Amino acid sequence: MADAAAASRFAEAFSGQIVQRGDPGYDDARVVWNGMIDRYPALVVRPESPGDVAAAVRFAREGELPIAVRSGGHSIPGLSTCDDGIVIDLSRMTGATVDASERPAWVNGGALLGELDQAAQAVGLVCPVGVVSHTGVAGLTLGGGMGRLQRKHGLTIDNLLGVELVTADGRHVRASEDEEPELFWGLRGAGANFGIVTAFR
Fold first, then answer.
1. What is the rounded distance in angstroms from the CA atom of residue 116 to the CA atom of residue 133?
2. Where residue 81 falls among pLDDT bands split at 50, 70, 90?
3. Cα 172 to the chain's mean position, in Å?
4. Taking 90 as the threshold, does the pLDDT of residue 5 lie above it?
5. d(CA 130, CA 148)
6. Strands annotated E in 48-111
7. In the CATH scheme, what architecture does the domain 96-200 have?
8. Extended beta strands in 23-118, E state
């Protein structure tokens, strides 16, 4: 566990919300969609920027804390929470925009499928995603992304053009076929093992 000085430095550098055991709202903050999963993280942090995500990753590394990342919290085996570690809850990093002329969408790491669907439909487009609107775009995409349009347009991951992510050492990088292509290749086959995606294109 991180020492008091490290915790103080983290709190000063972090602009989002930090919820720890004993705080009001802790039980609500730790709950995930799958009611069979009942875990007790040391902290639930809600970043508001990639810089906050990087600060949380560095803090967890320094304190040797397990990290779980939550977008929609729909992970059936409970990967979006942990015991005695830090849950990085991206629910404050939502939103999706679609460029009607160029047609790509930019989706923040905490966005839900419903947000992406609404943004695409507003300009007469559709994105091949899953079928449950309150699923996180991040988990669905990095897990492959099965949905109603997959026979015609492929899986969600097949349509991924690029990401911005925070790596395990706390760097914020972009990955696509042109930038960090090996990292991008890995993300499209091994999911969330390479960092925390803060934005998808």
1. 9
2. very high
3. 14
4. no
5. 7
6. 67-70, 86-89, 96-98, 105-108
7. 2-Layer Sandwich (3.30)
8. 43-46, 67-70, 86-89, 96-98, 105-108
Q: Which CATH class name applies to 4-89?
A: alpha beta
Residue 1 — very low, low, confident or very high, per pLDDT cuts 50/70/90? low
Can you give the residue ranges of every domain in the chain?
4-89, 96-200
What's the gap between Cα 152 and its chain centre?
27
What's the confidence (pLDDT) of residue 190? Answer: 76
Q: Determine the residue type at 197.
A: V
Tokens 């967890």 correspond to 60
The encoded tokens of residue 44 equal 């639930």
pLDDT at 8: 85
Contacts of 101 (CB under 8 A, 6+ apart): none
Other CB atoms within a 10 A radius of the CB of residue 116 amount to 26
